[in-house]
Amino acid sequence: MPNARVTITDRSTSDATGFDVLRVRARHLAPDRDYTVFLLETAGARFGAAEYIGDITTDPRGNADNELHLIVDEAFSSTIVNGQRARVDLNHAGMWFADPADDDFCLGANSPVTPFDGDNEAGVQAFNSANRQPPPAP
């Protein structure tokens, strides 16, 4: 997907409405496919903590424009590390092909199956926020 572009913007509205608005705009992705969207501790492989926040679907031209309503600015995971409760901030985003077969056009028929979908079967990560600076910690 050499001309693909995904833009994710966060509109901070949780103080006024109880949720933030995360807008996912995509252009020139593979057409007629679903992608899962996650908030992540780390954008690249080994991802750390991850929260499944929704799906986007591209149209026949490979474009999508979705708004997700959730807490984004203060998103975190709480887990036990070495016997102590630890907070892990989720300051990155990632998108996976929702169907394991949807990435075959670029990786072949034996591409890996990942657990990044509600049915525990997704394709590989298609996009992430690795090339941007994370926001400051709350």
Query: Roughly what is the average pLDDT, rounded to an integer?
Result: 91
- The helix/strand series, from N terminus to C terminus, equals EHEEEEEEEHE
Number of helices: 2
Q: For the report, how would you describe the main beta sheet?
A: 4 strands, antiparallel
Number of separate strands:
9
Structural class: mainly beta
Termini separation comes to 35 Å
* Rg calculated over all Cα atoms: 15 Å
Q: Show unreliable segments.
A: none
> Based on CA inertia axes, which overall geometry fits?
globular
How do the strands of the widest beta sheet line up side by side?
Answer: 4-3-8-9
Helix content: under 10%
What fraction strand? 35-45%
List the keywords:
globular; 2 helices; single chain; 9 strands; 4-stranded antiparallel sheet
Tell me what the structure shows.
This protein has two helices and nine strands; from the N terminus they run βαβββββββαβ. Strands 4-3-8-9 form a four-stranded antiparallel sheet, with no helix packed on it. It has a three-stranded antiparallel sheet with strand order 1-2-5, with no helix packed on it. It is globular and about 45 Å long. It is mostly beta strands and 138 residues long. A hairpin with a 2-residue loop joins β6 and β7. It is 6% helix and 43% strand. The model has no long low-confidence stretch (mean pLDDT 91).
Fold blueprint:
Blueprint: E1 5-11, H1 14-17, E2 20-27, E3 34-40, E4 50-57, E5 64-70, E6 76-81, E7 84-89, E8 92-97, H2 104-107, E9 125-128
Antiparallel strand pairs: 1-2, 2-5, 3-4, 3-8, 6-7, 8-9
